[in-house]
What we know:
Blueprint: H1 2-109
Amino acid sequence: xxxxxxxxxxxxxxxxxxxxxxxxxxxxxxxxxxxxxxxxxxxxxxxxxxxxxxxxxxxxxxxxxxxxxxxxxxxxxxxxxxxxxxxxxxxxxxxxxxxxxxxxxxxxxxxx
Length: 112
């Protein structure tokens, strides 16, 4: 009977030790999980900051694209204007050549 009692006590001690170890491990896991949960708001804040930076960069790119479009339109308009001026000057040069030819012909009538 004493042997049975001692055997039962040893089993109880063994089970209590196992329970203590399990409880300790569970507590350690809970502490680790709590640490991870505490880091979540920090990660969310970093993500929000990155989103703000991305939004600002996208806005800057959009503004730059609009400026490039305006400059391209201005260059096109100036090119059209220059092309028209060049055509007008070419026509004026042709007219001057005709006038010079006419004056040369008229001067050719006179002899010295």
